[in-house]
Design brief:
Number of helices: 1
Strand content: 35-45%
Strand order of the largest sheet: 4-3-2-1-5
Number of strands: 5
Oligomer: single chain
Largest sheet: 5 strands, antiparallel
Helix content: 25-40%
Mean pLDDT: 92
Shape: globular
Distance between the termini: 26 Å
Length: 67
């Protein structure tokens, strides 16, 4: 199960891909370019944000299967 966080400096939801050197590495739900952020600039998602992230992943998966 993926862990999603809100990057509060960018106001973006990201999937936690890893941790290194005191930083988190996040990427958009369903794929995309990773970015770095400090752990203190993240928070857990609200239930609504979690649902939104899940829908984005499902939509991306569905689009890739239709190609």
């Amino acid at each position: 199960m993926a862990t999603y966080l809100m990057d509060t400096t960018r106001n973006r939801i990201g999937e936690l891909m890893g941790k290194s050197g005191g930083r988190y590495f996040l990427r958009p739900p369903g794929g995309g370019r990773e970015w770095e952020c400090l752990p203190e600039n993240t928070r857990l998602l609200t239930p609504e944000e979690q649902l939104s992230a899940g829908v984005r992943v499902a939509n991306r998966y569905s689009q890739e299967r239709c190609r």
